[in-house]
Amino acid sequence: MSSNDSTIRAGVLGASGYIGAEVMRYVALHPNLTLEWATANRDAGRPIGDVLPNLRGFFSQEFLTAEAGEARAGDADVVFLALPHGDSQEVVPRLAAQHPRTTWIDLAGDFRTPDPDGFAKYYGGPHRAPDLLDRFVYGFTEGQRETLPGARLIANPGCFATGVLLALFPLVDTGMLSDPVCVTALTGSSGSGREPKRTTHHPERAQNLRAYKMLRHQHLLEVEWFLNGRSDSEIRLQFVPQSAPIVRGIFTTLFLPGKPAEDVLELMEQAYGREPLIDVVAGSPDMRVVQSTPRAIVGVAGEADRGAVVFSAIDNLGKGAAGQAIQNVNRALGLNETAGLEWPGGYV
Amino acid sequence: MSSNDSTIRAGVLGASGYIGAEVMRYVALHPNLTLEWATANRDAGRPIGDVLPNLRGFFSQEFLTAEAGEARAGDADVVFLALPHGDSQEVVPRLAAQHPRTTWIDLAGDFRTPDPDGFAKYYGGPHRAPDLLDRFVYGFTEGQRETLPGARLIANPGCFATGVLLALFPLVDTGMLSDPVCVTALTGSSGSGREPKRTTHHPERAQNLRAYKMLRHQHLLEVEWFLNGRSDSEIRLQFVPQSAPIVRGIFTTLFLPGKPAEDVLELMEQAYGREPLIDVVAGSPDMRVVQSTPRAIVGVAGEADRGAVVFSAIDNLGKGAAGQAIQNVNRALGLNETAGLEWPGGYV
Amino acid sequence: MSSNDSTIRAGVLGASGYIGAEVMRYVALHPNLTLEWATANRDAGRPIGDVLPNLRGFFSQEFLTAEAGEARAGDADVVFLALPHGDSQEVVPRLAAQHPRTTWIDLAGDFRTPDPDGFAKYYGGPHRAPDLLDRFVYGFTEGQRETLPGARLIANPGCFATGVLLALFPLVDTGMLSDPVCVTALTGSSGSGREPKRTTHHPERAQNLRAYKMLRHQHLLEVEWFLNGRSDSEIRLQFVPQSAPIVRGIFTTLFLPGKPAEDVLELMEQAYGREPLIDVVAGSPDMRVVQSTPRAIVGVAGEADRGAVVFSAIDNLGKGAAGQAIQNVNRALGLNETAGLEWPGGYV
Amino acid sequence: MSSNDSTIRAGVLGASGYIGAEVMRYVALHPNLTLEWATANRDAGRPIGDVLPNLRGFFSQEFLTAEAGEARAGDADVVFLALPHGDSQEVVPRLAAQHPRTTWIDLAGDFRTPDPDGFAKYYGGPHRAPDLLDRFVYGFTEGQRETLPGARLIANPGCFATGVLLALFPLVDTGMLSDPVCVTALTGSSGSGREPKRTTHHPERAQNLRAYKMLRHQHLLEVEWFLNGRSDSEIRLQFVPQSAPIVRGIFTTLFLPGKPAEDVLELMEQAYGREPLIDVVAGSPDMRVVQSTPRAIVGVAGEADRGAVVFSAIDNLGKGAAGQAIQNVNRALGLNETAGLEWPGGYV
Predict the structure, then answer these.
(1) For the domain with range A160-316, which CATH number is right: 3.30.360.10, 3.40.50.1400, 3.40.50.10610, 3.40.50.2020?
(2) Using CB atoms, which chains have 3+ pairs under 8 A with C?
(3) Is C282 in CB contact (< 8 Å) with chain B?
(4) pLDDT tens for residues B63-113?
(5) What is the pTM (predicted TM-score) of this model?
(6) Which residue in C159, C171, C271, C329 is the catalytic one?
(7) Roughly how many angstroms between the first and final C-alpha of chain B, as a whole number?
(8) What is the ipTM of this complex?
């Protein structure tokens, strides 16, 4: 599978959640991917375009049950798992061995680190497929580009993790990082998924701001593990996620007290200057510019007597989920890395 | 210019306003259009991607002054005029005669009807190129499809006009319309353009609703003119535009008291059932499904003892401006009508 | 109970829903009302300020169970019923007879008309206390002022009903009304109550617009009943409720094709010119000005050759629920009608 | 002026800006304050209720020109200066000496520290009344309570400064603060004032997030000066203000890596446990609970192995401006400190 003319057959498990729906949208936008099947248990039997009206006219199929989809796993060259956290641990052991030519990419938190104890601590219970953990490649594309080609099992990073890693990864072992690194990240409401809940109830969210899972969000696990595997000294985060009254996006702020902003900006430009999906700017990104796209912006600002701050802006469902998944699949299958990802969002 | 493999060279006048910026985005998304030049007077000399960061990486040019752009009109196969209302009246007389092989499409209100008196009444002053008025084709694509091929002068409909016509056009001379037809349309704030003003000041808009230009919005001119040219009986609108706290979109509601909803729905399905960019639904559309896309949804609802209502949902900058402009240009130049328009928006 | 110095003891049934919580807020703001008890079944035993943090410091009590609250009904001079639709039909028959000196005001839809058939049609099932229906006074204060003093059973109007009646009531039998009257009303998300659901899920509501219960919303029942009881000719509504991405407010638009706006405005000024809580304006109200207050704005606009439109703006939880309930209770108990209601909201 | 029955005559300079309009609202809500006059240069001669429709029915006066208002300075017991930054430096020297019995409270940034060099650095030019600087009392009420009684010249803190000081002040000299202290604060759009501008243009703000004046916001001046005057060791802030798509509010996050959250919470409860306008909570505040009110919430959270974070939530126009101004005036004039401030906001 090495040519840009290839047709890649895709299956999507859990296609009616917000992440799954966005994977479907990215499949529709991809010149090489074609949808083989998609599952949506509660909507099984309904035409895709009835459940996801934004995709009306793009797919003619009906949603399958999970069972029916799994039975057709072998028809797909790549399967996207967009299931609730915990479900991939059941599915992958059952199916991956049976279908050795299929590429599996998990968009949940099940296989992001090789650390079962960390998993148990942050995800609230023991891992049910611990022996598979170290067989997955962690798909933070820009930091993992060389190990992706040919990968059959890929764990797509979390949305917060992607935002934080984009801001932080180029600074590892540069002497720029404090211990701990203080970080806030504001998230849009779509990050909480399709199921209505109190924290995403419009009357209580629309003009609100609040923090949650302070200093203990589960994405800490993958971020600290990934960075510490690439760093000479231990990196610890003081990480505060916050709910913002936007629908899409993650806006990350990282403090670098006492560090010169111009040096930080130069490190960012070295790291990302040639990245097709990442813009580096002096100053703050505007969140809206990347909303509903696979793109990211990294910004750097500072004052001579105080130090620097780094920002990153991504779409939680785009670069933070479906967009990065496509990027990883493109690399794994030998396509152009940005195939299906080169389209702009709106100015507003 | 008749093949889908053609490369069409585009010029854009006024490319940094919201409509112009969206035209630029649609050019970037179009497989056959290539940007020859774009003007933005206040931003002349700046790279396009600096002014419109959503387009960073998509265009390498700098913005030109209006003067420099006009001097290069002959290099373009099609020129999009996205100027403030009134400016096209100056530009088109000056340039269109000089460049007889160029297609001109005006996205402002200058050339939408052949009626100079109507123009004077609704736009606050006499038309300055009245002899050109009847040379323009009014580009409400779905209602004007046959006159577009080969058109050199196209007036793109207003955003409200598009929303209202989509809901109303299939009902002309069917006996469904009251006299007058009562219509409301809610608009997003991007319809007011890029210049900050009181009515789009975030603290006063964000949780507000209000009506404006009640019963006298200038789009009445083109809607009533267009319909009455196609109707046996006079059609008058009781039209109330309203400001909603959304960024993009126009949501139109049209009353058909005493009419059977099932018959209305059937008329809509006959009219739009095969339209690639229009979905017909029983019930109400969801505004968000078409936001930031070139698509439209028309919905019909009713109660046996009361009658029917028709809804339409479009993006004011998409189907209501840049999207329809591309559709019109595609037809005028012999491309596939939906070239560059077949991509989905997000579910949220 | 006739002096402004009186202390009125209030009980609130269902105080943790949005309407109940707003009643609590209005009780806190009222110089004569004192909270005797409040029930919140799911939060029974918790301090009021923990459940409703906006009221921290205003009440020292804990929430009671429904059962415990009902047992204390006799301690209250007035009981506000802010229960889910249908529950008041159980409670009032059980308690009102036992406590003949207590005033009962129901904020649900259970007792708003004397018409059990209409109730069955619009509320989806037979009324369970039909013999009580005609003992209730319908509390559209401005149209019912003379029957309220001394009333012991009051049905507070629905939020949409209040918005529509404010716009429509002064026009009954003036020759201004079409048949049917076309009306739209936009509502904020708090109107759907505290329970998260799909239509109030922030990712799907925040930039959305949609209509619902088109031509069959249950508030039609009370509006048409109330008006037809006061009109020589039958009044029918073509009523389309719509969901707007705001938290609070109802913005109503009513069409009067062919009628002179100046005459309509004069009728409104005659009706409301001396009302302390209603402003009459030429043009459109701004929704935000009355949000989170007990006030209303009625506006009139028109064009000479087309006719008129009338608008009203209220807060759905204020004038549309708790505010009007206080107004009604004030009148019923002989207090100054606006006691506890004379405070302004913010400009933004 | 020492009794709660007193009538205090208020003048307001600059009453049609957002801060001035909110001062007017708080005057309307205050049992002891009566409006003597209010100026609004651009709206001079217009009834107050026409310019500020939320106050219709509360004031019968018309707005005066600045000149006419100043001429009546002597009629006021207290004058609120809600002028654009820089104007108070002109007005106070001219009027305060003439009217020695009037209390002056400046809500702009002109007189908040005695440091003219700091002013020049952060406000972009030399101070024009430097000799008055040290005659002002800085009105961070909770930290300055003892010096306010009898004060004739009061500088009301900035909105960000108030949010940051509430979170930080109780921690001075407790060993809890890092050097520097990392702080973010999210602000609503009303903080940018009534004049429309690009950063508050609804289409660009409504779903956006961005940082601005990173590490160099002018409120750093007053916060660092105030704290360092009360601390044994130097306190420096790494402060990143951010624009959120809300209308009202400031949500502050302050990092205390390595510090035990339970100890921090105890310090907060010691400091604020008896404050009538401040709630202390374990966890994060919800921004919306204090919007449009004079109240504040301080929250503390932490993890055993990581440390603590402190949050504060205020309304930028309430506790961050008009509310605190009233609190300060109440203390200065010997009224109950919370007179006119004891009313709740909504739950949503």
Answers:
(1) 3.30.360.10
(2) A, B, D
(3) no
(4) 999 999 999 999 999 999 999 999 999 999 999 999 999 999 999 999 999
(5) 0.98
(6) C159
(7) 38
(8) 0.97
